[in-house]
Amino acid sequence: AGPAESKNEGAMSEMVPEPRQKPVVPMKPTGINANLLGYIGIDTIIEQMRKKTMKTGFDFNIMVVGQSGLGKSTLVNTLFKSQVSRKTSGWNREEKIPKTVEIKAIGHVIEEGGVKMKLTVIDTPGFGDQINNENCWEPIEKYINEQYEKFLKEEVNIARKKRIPDTRVHCCLYFISPTGHSLRPLDLEFMKHLSKVVNIIPVIAKADTMTLEEKTEFKQRVRKELEVNGIEFYPQKEFDEDLEDKTENDKIRQESMPFAVVGSDKEYQVNGKRVLGRKTPWGIIEVENLSHCEFALLRDFVIRTHLQDLKEVTHNIHYETYRAKRLNDNGGLPPMTVETEENHESNL
Amino acid sequence: QNGGYRTLSLSGHVGFGSLPDQLVKKSIKQGFCFNILCIGETGSGKSALINSLFNTNFDDHESTHFLPSVQLRAQTYQLQESNVLLKLTVVNTVGFGDQINREDSYQPIVDYIDAQFEAYLQEELKIKRSLCSYHDTRIDVCLYFVLPTGHSLKTLDLLTMKCLDSKVNIIPIIGKADGISKSELHNFKNKIMSELVGNGVHIYQFPTDDETVSEVNTLMNRHLPFAVVGSTKEVKIGNKTVRARQYPWGIVQVENENHCDFIKLRNMLICTNMEDLREQTHVRHYELYRRRKLEEMGFRDTGPQNKPVSLQEAYEAKRHEMYLQLQGEEEEMRQQFVQRVKEKEAILKEAEQQVQTDFEHHMLMHQEMKTKLDRKKKVLEDEIAVFIEKKANAELLKSKLFASTPVVSLKREEDRK
């Protein structure tokens, strides 16, 4: 506003500029030893922060573990609505089951709503497929620790990068076979070892082979077994930050998890809508229909509500634990860095 | 461009567009920190400006001009607006420029800024650390107050800003700008900026890489330094009450953009660039401090054959070195101790021998004395014996004499008769 300058002492004719536009949410002048007497604009920092994070983009690394044939790749592709997993669509019979556990990481960039995400899917073919599966989680644990090590080395440099590339595994989906009985010894062993180093989200695969009652019973049994064996899956009770978190997470831990899911990348026409589903002689299983399976719950949980938290728990807790242990190990230099054996297929 | 990653298109709605919201939600829960350092001579308008900026009256008393050295006074406040909690720390330099000899004026300031970096570095280097709950006291912005003399920058100002420009984001401010006319102000601003540029002082530039703010930021960059007026008093004008300073010749309104740059400063500082200021502090100034500090301590990123050495290795090598050194010192101390014990033992032994000799000497003396005394005793006994003999003889003689003197006895008999 351009006020007309007046030479009168009272300046009555001078236009006093309008005060700042007040925000929609009324400001509460609370403070411990300061009372705000008018709007300042501190809350604009939210917008500033949001803009900044959208500019830098996000990294997200998700690992899938489970015996072959449980639909891991399909599920991940369904989760991210694109061919992010190494397997192309369709059931590939020629795919050889490897003789040991391999770690295969593939990265893609996907964008939605102005948000750019560098998504890396880490597959573990060969897990649980051998005759003797003793210690088959070891290559996986090794890979996870290698990513922590990589990050630590960068963090500890004198001249550091502005943004350290994050290859740490933020989330590990563990696929449970829908036997309807109980967890297998291999499942328990894997989760016991790895729940201490990474966020594990157990998932009941190919849940279209269970009725509703069987599903509920199986889930209850699985939860009980995990509890009895002291396995803390994500979201871990000890990391609930406040009452709000606890209430929300308790519900998920005690009722929803493990999510019983069905994956598909094929679309069918149902009630005039195109939906993702599996076509069987007895009907079409709609993947995103909550009464058919819990895929939508898993998707909302992992992507829409807890994505950031998965990253933060990885960074603030699992990584810190690794770092503290590493720095505490007395005597001697760290082992010579051997280039990690994982294959980085970047689909160039 | 995407680091070798192929871009995929989505065949449906996934939902990670909510990621910034998730992040923001977490940040709100944690709260924000913002730390302002005000440098300026006593009476240059620092407190008034801070009060005006945050629309409140922070309790602060006027400072005296007679402090012997520059002191830094920090106070932390909790402010809340909507659901945003801000922990604001305002650090004031008290006594800046007041001393007669001002050579060391800037040193306490530099030390303070470094101390905050050091505290953060220490936390970052800890084995068990809690960076997410750490109260970050690193200075995000330094408001440097220049008095509106209308002439050039004082040497003290140039020197101080030059010392600080690689450690903190500096925004120069002309305080108490109600004492300067518009044309004088224009010249003064140009003079200041050209002096800063001429002396190689890097002040904070509002970022121009983001299209949404680049325009306004570029404009604001040209208005530097901001000429401000601060006031904690309110004056009624018409039907509104505004912050202002009342003079006989008129009312200077703080929030009137024609009167001073206060609104511009507030917008730039808080509404547009607060996050960038914090980021620059962390990513640029702190990293520089950290790098210098670690290099000072002897760490390098490349080892003696120019092979990359991780800080981890260097750290452990150094720790091993220190450990050996410690062992060496311990050994030295132990040997010293043993030596001292030996010496003390020798001294004691000597003393013991001395005591022994003395004892024997005394025994000897005692023996001699005894012999002497025995002899004397013998002599005396002999004398006694002689004397007794003499006495006996004398008595014998006396009794004999008694018998041969009857006169004496006749007299006695006569008496008797």
TrEMBL record, chain A:
Gene3D superfamilies given in the database record: P-loop containing nucleotide triphosphate hydrolases (3.40.50.300)
GO cellular component labels: cytoplasm
Region entry Disordered, spans: 1-27, 326-348
Molecular function per GO: GTP binding
Keywords: Cytoplasm, GTP-binding, Nucleotide-binding
Pfam family, one: Septin
SUPFAM superfamilies reported in the protein's UniProt record: P-loop containing nucleoside triphosphate hydrolases
InterPro entries from the UniProt entry: G_SEPTIN_dom, P-loop_NTPase, Septin, Septin3
Residue span, Septin-type G domain: 56-329
Protein localization: Cytoplasm
Domain of life: Eukaryota
Homology family: Belongs to the TRAFAC class TrmE-Era-EngA-EngB-Septin-like GTPase superfamily. Septin GTPase family.
Designated name of the protein: Neuronal-specific septin-3
Organism, scientific name: Rhinopomastus cyanomelas
From TrEMBL, chain B:
Source taxonomy: Eukaryota, Metazoa, Chordata, Craniata, Vertebrata
Septin-type G domain segment(s): 30-296
Protein name, per record: SEP10 protein
Highest taxon of the lineage: Eukaryota
Organism (species): Rhinopomastus cyanomelas
Listed transmembrane segments: none
Pfam family, one: Septin
MF annotations from Gene Ontology: GTP binding
Family: Belongs to the TRAFAC class TrmE-Era-EngA-EngB-Septin-like GTPase superfamily. Septin GTPase family.
Annotated keywords: GTP-binding, Nucleotide-binding
InterPro entries, A to Z: G_SEPTIN_dom, P-loop_NTPase, Septin
